[in-house]
Design a protein that fits this description.
- It is a single chain.
- The two termini are about 40 Å apart.
- It contains 15 helices and 13 strands.
- The mean pLDDT is about 90.
- Strands 5-4-3-1-6-7-8 form a seven-stranded parallel β-sheet, sandwiched between helices. A four-stranded mixed β-sheet has the order 10-9-11-12, covered by helices on one side. A two-stranded antiparallel sheet has the order 2-13.
- It has helices spanning about 25-40, 65-75, 90-95, 110-115, 135-145, 155-170, 180-190, 220-225, 235-240, 245-255, 295-305, 335-345, 350-365, 370-380, 395-415; strands spanning about 15-20, 45, 55-60, 80, 105-110, 125, 145-150, 175, 195-205, 265-270, 275-280, 285-290, 310.
- It is of the alpha/beta class.
- It is about 40% helix and about 15% strand.
- α2 packs across α3, α4 packs parallel to α5 (about 135-145) and α9 packs across α13 (about 350-365).
């Protein structure tokens, strides 16, 4: 096991910490601002060290410009970013929503998003954009040697080896925000690599755990969006329902910790209290337990290697009831096995692109729920694998990123044309 980046325990990051929040209007972004608001209002405290301070240097949203404007009015960052340059969700439309006297720089599109992490007034980049759209900002942050609080798992799915090589060259630090990977990270902190035997990711099982394929034939988007434990965005909620989210997390774990996928297991845990486990070679199993609340891993990454006290409500083990574990049903939910296959065959870019389009089409009622794995399977059958690119220079990074995005774009076209 070899972690993807440096881990400066002895020389912690300085305070104050300036944050660029990429994907501020999404679920993770909104939760991050709740954490920062609680910190600013004195509802959180650090466990040790002098009092620190967080500053918001940039907010980057998508097309929810009303929420972005509200966030900007509250935090007053010097730069804002949004998806569209023009039109009803563009720069001029956003300017009309901002308070008088507040005139931030506003950038738009992929180039604008990618420029933010390299700014001198940014210490931490919280990468929380949804899907492959977040890759550019994550790579830019790594090239700039920044601290990356990574909630965009697709960055690792598409470019895990690339990001590892960049981090080795620039000294960038990656901290996992995904609840499962943050749990693994915390369970492994202080352990020597040779002590780790395997990693165990937990999965809630989603809203359809225990159902048969026959029972899933008439599932509609509103049914799949009813996650039993977590409040998340639409895309990740559908991925949870298909178990693709857990497949992507297996890939993420392999790249984060340099582990063979045979040593990364998945256990369905409906209560979502145990967030992941680490098996040690002496037979012990370490687990992280907490109420299901994304503010915990967010706070852990923002303050690392310190801790913010009372980031979430305390877990009452006596009240949470029995905790159960079971094997995932990969016959009814084949996306987990499709992800493992894609990792073996060097097809993770195609896996992710096909799945993103499949989820979009399902949410539009263009394909059925059971068509999602069928579409992904067809794409994987038709494409060829490739060796993940590395980058010894910024120019090689740009070339590698262009190649990944080209494969991503080509796959999306194929997935959009797929018919059951």
């Amino acid at each position: 096991m070899r972690y993807i980046s440096r881990l400066p325990f002895d020389h912690p990051l300085p305070w104050p910490r300036s944050i660029a929040l990429m994907g501020s209007t999404g679920s993770i972004g909104s939760s991050t601002l709740r954490v920062l608001d609680a910190w600013e209002k004195g509802r959180l405290s650090r466990t040790r060290g002098d009092a620190g301070e967080f500053r918001v240097s940039a907010l980057a949203g998508g097309r929810n410009i009303k929420l972005l404007a509200e966030q900007a009015e509250r935090w007053r960052p010097p730069v804002l970013a949004l998806r569209d340059k023009e039109g009803e969700y563009g720069i001029d439309a956003l300017k009309k929503l901002l308070p008088s006297g507040y005139r931030p720089d506003i950038v738009a599109g992929p180039e604008g998003f990618a420029a933010i992490p390299a700014r001198d007034d940014v210490d931490i980049v919280l990468s929380a954009q949804v899907g492959a759209a977040g890759l550019g900002a994550t790579v830019s942050a790594a090239e700039a040697g920044k601290v990356i609080c990574l909630a965009n798992k697709e960055s690792l799915v598409l470019a895990g080896p690339l990001l590892r090589s960049i981090c080795e060259r620039t000294g960038a630090l990656i901290l996992p925000v995904d609840s499962e990977h943050n749990a693994l990270f915390q369970c492994m902190t202080g352990r020597r690599a040779e002590e780790i035997r395997s990693l165990i990711l937990t999965a809630s099982g989603g809203p359809f755990r225990g159902r048969t394929r026959e029972e899933l034939k008439n599932v509609r988007p509103e049914h799949a969006l009813r996650h039993p434990n977590w409040s998340m965005g639409a895309k990740i909620t559908i991925d949870s329902a298909t178990l693709m989210n857990k497949g992507l997390e297996v890939i993420e774990a392999c790249y984060l910790y340099d582990m063979p996928q045979s040593e990364v297991q998945v256990a369905v845990h409906p209560q979502s209290v145990v967030h992941s486990l680490v098996e040690l070679k002496d037979g012990a199993v370490m687990a992280q337990l907490a109420v299901p609340d994304m503010r915990l891993p967010i706070a852990a990454c923002l303050a690392w290697p310190f801790m913010l006290e009372d980031a979430i409500p305390r877990l009452n083990l006596l009240a949470c009831g029995p905790l159960g574990f079971e094997a995932p049903d990969t016959e009814v939910f084949p996306c987990l096995d499709l992800a493992r296959r894609a990792l073996d065959e060097g097809k993770t870019v195609e896996l992710n692109a096909a799945n993103e389009i499949a989820v979009e089409r399902f949410l539009k009622n263009d394909i059925a729920f059971l068509d999602i794995p069928d579409l992904v399977h067809t794409i994987l059958e038709a494409c060829s694998g490739f060796e993940p690119p590395l980058a010894d220079t910024p120019a090689q990074t740009r070339s590698a990123l262009d190649g990944i995005l080209a494969r991503d774009s080509h796959t999306r076209q194929q997935a959009a044309a797929w018919r059951a």
